[in-house]
Amino acid sequence: MNILEKIVLHKKKEVAQAKANISAKELELFPAFGRKVNSLSASLLAEGSSGIIAEFKRKSPSKGTINDKVLVQDVTAAYSAAGAAGLSVLTDEEFFGGNADDLQLARKSNPRTPVLRKDFIVDEYQILEAKAWGADVILLIAACLTPEEIRKYAATARSLGLEVLMEVHDEEELTRSLTPDLNLIGVNNRNLKTFEVSIETSLRLVEQIPDTVVKVSESGLSSAETIRQLHTAGYRGFLIGENFMKTPHPGQALSDLVGALQQVTI
């Protein structure tokens, strides 16, 4: 059993417990459930946008603890101030050290910045959670979902006003997972089997992604030159977390990158 399979197995048990604690009807009564969402796709495409989706992540299965010394409200507010086009907040606790409070605090601290719930969606209930907690976007990971599940979950998110970022790792996942209700498609440059990272994955897949969605590159992005290369290829979103979070001041790390981006032609 690989790490993704372990995560999904644990997530299904976690969701079953969450359903027992709070019903879907109760989630719909949360204050944030009725709010108007912020569009991540529009933010990424806006003139002058940095294109950066800055992530708050305490730890990961491959890296262990990355940074558990900072507060989510401080980091995400600093991200927004530094020019982040969107925020990504991990809500998986077992493997990534996140939780619902992190997303809710990020939402409260950044009312106008689009917020992605970064988690492993395996049940429609989690989409209701995302809406109730104040997310604007959900992540669907093709590697752990069937095409039918992707279609169903994307349609559910769209019906709630949420945007959908679908993550793929290769051509096969991309081809089988396309559905009209996707707003963004992200190419994860990290190989799930070897954990090796290469932006060649993004460069290889870019022409196969429909122009009807916003193209996002994920993982292994650390330099302005790399982002320029990917932007030229057609990407408008760049999800970066570890390279910011491994520093004492993630917001400053983003600010430095945005400054460097202004020195290169995008």
Task: Describe the fold and architecture.
The protein is built from 12 helices and 10 strands. The protein is an alpha/beta fold and 266 residues long. The protein has one domain (3-261): TIM Barrel. Helix 6 links the parallel strand 5 (115-118) and strand 6 (137-141). Helix 4 packs across helix 5 and helix 10 (224-233) packs across helix 12. The model has no long low-confidence stretch (mean pLDDT 95). Pathway: Amino-acid biosynthesis; L-tryptophan biosynthesis; L-tryptophan from chorismate: step 4/5. Residues 4-256 form the Indole-3-glycerol phosphate synthase domain. GO terms for molecular function: indole-3-glycerol-phosphate synthase activity; phosphoribosylanthranilate isomerase activity.
CATH class designation: Alpha Beta
Radius of gyration: 17 Å
Assembly state: single chain
User: What class would the helix/strand composition place it in?
Assistant: alpha/beta
Q: Strands of the biggest beta sheet: in what spatial order? A: 1-4-5-6-7-8-9-10
- The CATH H-level superfamily is Aldolase class I
Q: What's the CATH architecture name? A: Alpha-Beta Barrel
Helix content range of the residues, please?
40-55%
Q: Can you summarize the main beta sheet?
A: 8 strands, parallel, barrel
Q: List low-pLDDT spans.
A: none
Shape: globular
